[in-house]
Description:
Elements: H1 2-17, E1 29-33, H2 40-56, E2 60-64, H3 71-78, E3 86-91, H4 92-101, E4 113-129, H5 137-146, E5 152-155, H6 161-173, E6 178-181, H7 185-194, E7 199-203, H8 208-213, E8 216-221, H9 236-239, E9 247-255, H10 260-274, H11 277-284, E10 289-293, H12 295-315
Parallel strand pairs: 1-2, 1-3, 5-6, 5-7
Antiparallel strand pairs: 3-9, 4-7, 4-8, 4-9, 4-10
Helix pairs in contact: 2-10, 4-12
Amino acid sequence: MRLRIWLAFAVWIAAFSNPAQAEYPERVITLIVAVPPGGAGDLVARQFANRLSELLNQSVIIENRAGAAGTIAAALTTRAAPDGYTLLLSSIATHCTAPVVYKNITYDPSKDFSHIGLIATAPAMLSVNSALPIHSVADLVAYARSKPGELNFGSSGNGSGPQLWGEMFMAASGVKLTHVPYKGSAPAVVDLTAGRIQMMFDAAAAQISGLQTGQLRPLAVLSEERSIFFPDVPTMVEAGYPSVAGNLWYGLSGPAKLPPDVVARLEGALQKIAVMPEFQEALKQVGFISTPMSARAYSRFILDENDKYRKIAGAANISVE
């Protein structure tokens, strides 16, 4: 009798001392976004966060921490507790272009993060002001060779993806262009439509106003296949420059050493969200397509993207203080 009482007491003590661990998530999740409210990346994040909240039965709030090409948001994420309650909308800026051009970067894009999966991509596009007598990539190359350095291409800033795509094109074609950096894509597009600069490599969504009015002429997309948004525009592969390739993309990441069960839960949710028709349609409204990728594949993708852009930045001697 005494033995039974003692065993029951021991079980009670063990249960009291080691309560069952609550299933993730048990409180609000913060998704850090490296762009201001209202931009395409912010809209992708909000569409994703709304559906993630529904699947996890927990609130997911957006925290916009723009600045320094995404490095502020990324660095903030690395300092968060690795418990799954602070996540990052990772991107080509936070994990590929900024890490290879910023001299004083404070994080490693692979070692300091747990990558959960790719969410969406948008095709990059080469466009010119429609007043120019240029109707193809071949026309552009011939025109640029006859006027070395006279054609200006705008970008969203020094060390940005659009600048590196321009450098990529110059290396492949042998032409000489002049880079003009802006504080974001919007002012660059304004000057491009006004003819103050002549060309631009950027997301098609960023150039959509000028494309719709006819002030901009699309020459090629930098994706492997033609864009569903611009099916009549050839790829750089078709134009004869297969090495000129690039897309804007967004994924989901967290601090390093996230528990495997948390990564698995988030990865599973991401895969479910990616195939939701309403999510796919919402992405299309801002020029993106759902392109889900597993945690393992996304980690490998980031390494490959880093290698590609590091070579481009090194060859062009691009660095940002």
